[in-house]
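Please fill in the sequence for the structure shown.

STRUCTURE ENCODING:
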């Protein structure tokens, strides 16, 4: 109720219905024969999300919603089916952006169009590499984050880099000093930025 922004990432328009009635999120070890795979239509997604946005805005009228489409390909559905699915999602998001306080962040286009070289994908040719994720993150910061917030992000990133560092001096005192410094930095950040998860 107090959030200022909600981020929604659509992954696939393919879904499974149980006994031709209820769309499910998980099969829970029920036989595959009990389910029917189907591709949602743009209008179905649009109508469902217009209802969701209406409900959200009833109790949080100032909420902004940022939609994005995942660049991860659902190759198990097939490449043609994946592209059909992504096209439906992109069209649904385009239409949802006509709603009040709804926006679009182009993570899909950044990875698929700007970073289309396979070196930006892991060996499975499906998931983006850490480098690709960093490019998307930097683009996100440029789209949505002001300079003062970027400084906070920089400080927190520096803390996480330090925390991930393996100390050269691995004797008991060296490790204790390292651990104490991590705790102190964490505490300082929490004091300085009480509303930020460190």
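FILLED IN BY: designer on duty
SEQUENCE:
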């Amino acid at each position: 109720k107090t959030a200022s922004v909600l981020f929604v990432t659509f992954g696939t328009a393919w879904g499974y219905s149980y006994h031709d009635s209820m769309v499910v999120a998980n099969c829970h070890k029920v036989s595959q024969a009990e389910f029917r795979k189907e591709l949602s239509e743009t209008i179905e997604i649009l109508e469902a999300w217009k209802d969701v946005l209406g409900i959200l805005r009833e109790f949080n009228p100032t909420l902004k919603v940022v939609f994005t489409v995942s660049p991860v390909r659902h190759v198990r559905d097939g490449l043609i089916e994946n592209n059909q699915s992504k096209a439906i999602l992109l069209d649904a998001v385009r239409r949802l952006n006509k709603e009040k306080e709804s926006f679009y962040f182009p993570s899909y286009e950044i990875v698929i169009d700007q970073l289309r070289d396979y070196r930006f994908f892991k060996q499975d040719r499906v998931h983006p590499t850490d480098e690709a994720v960093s490019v998307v993150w930097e683009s996100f910061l440029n789209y949505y984050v002001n300079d003062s917030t970027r400084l906070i992000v920089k400080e927190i990133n520096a803390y996480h880099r330090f925390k991930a560092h393996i100390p050269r001096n691995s004797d008991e005192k060296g490790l204790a000093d390292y651990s104490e410094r991590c705790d102190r930095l964490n505490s300082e950040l929490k004091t300085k930025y009480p509303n930020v998860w460190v």
